[in-house]
């Protein structure tokens, strides 16, 4: 099985951000429309975070690891473009 190397783009995207992100940091880094969308994504578990009372604890490295795990990588294909069956 071929190993796919994930781009360093995430490292650059999160470069210079504090270990603990604020709502505005997360909104900006994810390119979301506004804070309302960010809160919805947090509430729905799309982005990993911990809610403590009314405050969200958003850890930069947890978000980065989650995004890295969500990369869609190309599957191997045979010569005619059909997905190969590796079973």
TrEMBL record:
Residues 21-70 form the Helix-turn-helix domain. This is Helix-turn-helix domain-containing protein. Pfam families: HTH_17. It comes from the Bacteria. It comes from Kocuria oceani.
